[in-house]
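Complex record, two chains
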Amino acid sequence: DGGITQSPKYLFRKEGQNVTLSCEQNLNHDAMYWYRQDPGQGLRLIYYSQIVNDFQKGDIAEGYSVSREKKESFPLTVTSAQKNPTAFYLCASSSVANTEAFFGQGTRLTVV
Amino acid sequence: AQSVTQLDSQVPVFEEAPVELRCNYSSSVSVYLFWYVQYPNQGLQLLLKYLSGSTLVKGINGFEAEFNKSQTSFHLRKPSVHISDTAEYFCAVRNQAGTALIFGKGTTLSVSS
């Protein structure tokens, strides 16, 4: 089945540690996105990439980094510079021709 | 910049009653609009989308939405809800650059018997 796989589903880290969230898609989509979801805040765009080896900052990129070395993969690193990293993180993808985004099941990150 | 406002953060309703979830967007020359549903601890699933053409859009699970350009609205409706419709609903608009979706803050629909 085609889709987007995020792993792990739950992640716990100590404060001050960097952590990388995985996102893989087999939909052959060119564009990929990372959103952060907090209760009552909706989804806020962290980073997006429309093509391999290129990515752009979204609205809340500070404290995060990404890479896009392969079309199917778009990992997100939450660095120690992110002041409040505990949140639900959603990865999505879309084809350039289509307009809707397809979402993974999310990773819930808890920093203690 | 594009923006989306979901006018109700929570909507409680009884089973088999009709429901409307309200969404307003900031105006733009061309607008692509979406409604997504999210069940607890899961990703988002597309309910329906408006790209062009008929202003009444039908989606999955019996939902429909009407695009109203003069009111800059895209309200979601269902004539009779089920317990299983309990979830969070998000309205979204594609940004002007066409590079990403901008989401509203969500509406929690709670259906009780």
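Note: Chain A has no helices and eleven strands.
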